[in-house]
Amino acid sequence: MSLSFSLEAMDGTARAGMLRTAHGDIPTPVFMPVGTAATVKGMTKEMIAATGAPIILANTYHLMLRPGAERVEKLGGLHTLMQWPKPILTDSGGFQVMSLGDLRTITEEGVTFRSHLDGSAHALTPERAMDIQHKLDATITMVLDECTPYPATHAEAQSSMERSMRWAARSKEAFVTRAGYGLFGIQQGSMYPDLREASTRALLDIGFDGYAIGGLAVGEGQEVMFGVLDTAVPPLPADRPRYLMGVGKPSDLVGAVARGVDMFDCVIPTRSGRFARAYVPGGELNLRNACHADDPRPLQEDSDCPASQYSRAYLHHLVKSNEMLGAMLLTWHNVHYYQSLMRGMRQAIMSGTFADFAASFAEQQAKGPA
User: Which domains occur in the chain, in start order?
Assistant: First the structure.
């Protein structure tokens, strides 16, 4: 294996670990801000670093279309292009391609599709996905998989999962092993425990640096997702990081960490910031609401994030005036809130108080934001 991962503590099934890479160490549990097109929308690299984020995510599909993997490689790779020296994980593009609907065709070889930008034709195979991510200089590369639509029958989910496992083997074959770089496999199987188990066995036979759980957060709801995690996570190797893709809201993160997940990504904190919503202890605030117009209180009094110290009245004014600074500050605050939540969970696991942390979080959520 090319990456080094060590467990530092467990509290129940919640885990605290350290993932060591060519571009720096990643304490887990960790939330990765999404920088789809080589930018976390509305944030400079200094703002991202100030939140404490040790890793960000970028996307193969979007970057292969614009500016192009070959161009990024010529410019020195994503780390140089973005001036982000820390780790970068790249999603293989499978989810985005699968969501194109009539614009794409899936075969055993891979996926052919038309760009949502200009209609140009492209092909994405497991081998091409590895080549693109290599050119991007991704610290962590994801195998190409087929994101099973939801809902799906057992037969549909099985066919989709088995194709993903064949693609995973081809991805592993095409991946260029380098010290400090890694390749993650992706477990599929929709909502069916037997398929998740079969997918896990297939991935373990191939062997990966880490294991992702795909095909969730696709509309099934939190209760169903947690039910899947209850059976999908335990068979994954304890000495490898576990990554729940595309999740989620703060309560999703706490529940998934309790079930043994180590890594997360989601557009929610950045997208919410652009739509005037802020995550604070107890839930969400909508800064468009008139109740904030005369509120001099800081967005979050106990936060050390500079963006969180602006008054709710000022943020309301920025939002209502359509000033871009409003979206930038709320995005900064949300990403910082998520990083603080992950640090809080890690500290609780290390000190053996995770159950108390989770109970306090749930109690706060029930009360709502102040």
Answer: 4-265 (3.20.20.105), 273-365 (no CATH)
